[in-house]
Amino acid sequence: xxxxxxxxxxxxxxxxxxxxxxxxxxxxxxxxxxxxxxxxxxxxxxxxxxxxxxxxxxxxxxxxxxxxxxxxxxxxxxxxxxxxxxxxxxxxxxxxxxxxxxxxxxxxxxxxxxxxxxxxxxxxxxxxxxxxxxxxxxxxxxxxxxxxxxxxxxxxxxxxxxxxxxxxxxxxxxxxxxxxxxxxxxxxxxxxxxxxxxxxxxxxxxxxxxxxxxxxxxxxxxxxxxxxxxxxxxxxxxxxxxxxxxxxxxxxxxxxxxxxxxxxxxxxxxxxxxxxxxxxxxxxxxxxxxxxxxxxxxxxxxxxxxxxxxxxxxxxxxxxxxxxxxxxxxxxxxxxxxxxxxxxxxxxxxxxxxxxxxxxxxxxxxxxxxxxxxxxxxxxxxxxxxxxxxxxxxxxxxxxxxxxxxxxxxxxxxxxxxxxxxxxxxxxxxxxxxxxxxxxxxxxxxxxxxxxxxxxxxxxxxxxxxxxxxxxxxxxxxxxxxxxxxxxxxxxxx
Length: 494
Hints:
By secondary structure, the protein is α+β, with helices and mostly antiparallel strands. The protein has helices spanning 2-20, 36-43, 48-54, 96-104, 152-157, 159-165, 167-189, 230-238, 276-295, 318-326, 336-345, 356-368, 421-436, 447-454, 467-475, and strands at residues 57-70, 73-80, 83-90, 110-119, 125-136, 193-194, 200-201, 213-216, 221-225, 243-251, 263-272, 299-302, 305-308, 314-317, 376-379, 401-406, 409-416, 460-466. Strand 2 and strand 3 form a beta hairpin. The radius of gyration is 29 Å and the shape is elongated. The two termini are 13 Å apart.
């Protein structure tokens, strides 16, 4: 820390020297005409002779990330976004004031340059600077003397430094932006209307999760940060919008892990006059299309494993997956004691007082989910764990629902929506009873949503896709923290 303070004081002295020379250490507008990446792409392959003949001028700005001074000249490397370009700083080509800037430069400072492209004696693509403008003084040194920032917690906590030190991180978040833009375009082209629904709910609903609670002083009521937008999006279907979607944040007061962050980005969309089978086809088209668009292929590498996103993907029923993955007898699906014995045999820890459906779900999560590496639609979930899904016509104990798994984790959840208000009330009341018995994640009875359903909702299919997990997959990142710019962390120790 003492070394940091000393370096900081030295930089403050340089800041004062700049001011004494009439140079503003925190400048104003600079007209950027070029980007480093575009200059490299357009001219980086040209020979020394070609560059000398063409005399290409350019004006760009960036952060100084490398600096070599010797006598009356020097070289610096400027970072512009994730791209880096060397500049040549020669006293004879600059004004006295500009070379004063060169003498006071530190790693991390921002400058703007105008010059001509050329190649050095060592054939390095470089800008010969004719005009130099100081833009901003950095008072803290770059991490580890520019050997990079590798401490994981510091990278997440100080993302601004991570982005400076690790240009590949820029690419992850640029790809994230392209993926979200691709999703938006895909849905809009198919007639979906993008909407925004409340972030603060009087009653939490739409998912089995523990909410964050806040208080509105003026109204004198508690409100909940939304755990899902589902019930509001369905109200819009009732209101007559045939296709709606929202890309926004959800908040769940749950643990933090490599696949969980308390706030995360979700896509939810609803499609009137459709069922979950329509969404299977749409999901295959969306995700395989994004892979092709962003990566140029539907066969990707994720954490050393090949994942084939080329449709069609496997369909596997929930109960069938439990039985076939573990070699269980079908009677286990109907008998709580047999299910409990099977869990013990499979080393799946369950509460001995759990219901049959809770036991089976634990077996599914522990033994089936991690093994679903290739894209797989798990279908036909029991009604007990699907309180908002429509019953199957062929088997009312099951629902018209699927969850999509890729690389051993859930990516999407979809179903033919329950639009029978009497059935929905019955299920809400069943969930409320579970809540009274101690299940904090069970649904409350949302009377306004039930009222909306009683005005009539057409047959509808709805789906939620975890944007962060999808981006993890398409950028080959093992942790959700690597695709969220500012992930939630424990408080920093002072």
